[in-house]
Design goal:
The protein is α/β, with parallel strands linked by helices and 289 residues long. It has nine helices and twelve strands. The mean pLDDT is 93.
Length: 289
């Protein structure tokens, strides 16, 4: 999708940002999405190909336009997002490319909640979960965007993931929607036990992010370096998720995973836009086993 700011438009969307970062860090990705048969859809495909990003999983919709979000500054609260309905990514289908992926060894599968606002893409996600559930770790970056979620979407998402990443505001929303009678501080452990999650990661902006691991009494903490000048925080959470996933797949110690995720996200806050235009940005983060 494109994020439309007052100053212009930027290519975005949490799953694309996430996959793009991993691609630039040397991790092979399969990206499943859908764009319209329009100028903006073609622009997205051209941008992806210019960076060597795989486009085989991006479907082209003849009937619905490419995704669009209107982003406005909200003093004291970051940004407000107006996510336009009935866009191409709401109609992702199980096509031959996706069917082939069901036979692949995919170590980790990333998803969120916005993709579930329409029945077509929601059913496609459920088919992916059904086919891949026993052979892939599912990473839920919950990314709640009102009004495109409800109790059923959150319940289904939590039941079908192994790793949950949420911020403090999203934890409170989960607590309210699921009528959980627990303090917010107890929610990560509670959700991990209730939904059989291996890891729960809670981010908190410029304050400490934490990882809770099932079966481990220790809690891993990391506070971002506040000496960096913040230019633009849009997409920092997607970068955090990318580095968290990379470290998890590489079996790094969880404290190292969290620290590197914080460093990468903080670095993204120092550049304009969610996707750095200079490949040199990624050099310190290229994957080394």
């Amino acid at each position: 999708m494109f994020d439309k700011f007052e100053s212009g438009k930027r290519l975005g969307g949490a799953p694309f940002n996430y996959a793009f970062h991993l691609h630039k860090m040397g991790i092979p990705v399969h990206f499943i999405s859908r764009v319209g048969d329009d100028a903006e859809g073609r622009e997205i495909l051209e941008f992806a190909r210019s960076h060597g990003f795989p486009t085989e999983g991006i479907q082209i919709d003849p009937n619905h336009p490419t995704g669009e979000v209107t982003v406005t500054s909200d003093s004291g609260n970051g940004h407000r997002f107006e996510i336009l309905p009935d866009r191409a990514y709401d109609f992702i289908e199980v096509d031959p490319y996706l069917q082939k992926r069901f036979r692949d060894d995919i170590p980790l599968t990333y998803f969120g909640t916005l993709i579930q606002r329409n029945s077509t893409s929601r059913e496609t996600l459920h088919e992916i979960q059904k086919k891949m559930g026993l052979k892939s770790t599912f990473f839920l970056d919950i990314n709640l965007r009102a009004p495109f979620y409800d109790r059923a979407v959150i319940e289904s998402s939590l039941k079908n993931c192994d790793i949950l990443k949420a911020n403090r505001h999203e934890l409170r929303e989960i607590k309210n929607l699921l009528n959980i009678d627990r303090p917010v501080a107890e929610l990560p452990r509670y959700l991990a036990e209730r939904y059989k999650l291996g890891l729960v990661c809670v981010t908190n902006g410029s304050k400490a992010s934490v990882i809770y691991e099932t079966g481990n009494r220790n809690v891993f903490h990391c506070t971002p370096d506040d000496s960096y000048e913040v230019v633009d925080s849009v997409g920092a959470g997607d970068g955090f998720s990318a580095m968290l996933s990379l470290g998890y797949m590489a079996s790094w110690p969880l404290q190292s995973v969290l620290e590197r995720a914080c460093v990468f996200a903080t670095g993204l806050c120092g550049v304009q836009g969610a996707l750095p235009g200079d490949n040199k940005f990624y050099q310190p983060y290229r994957f080394v086993r």
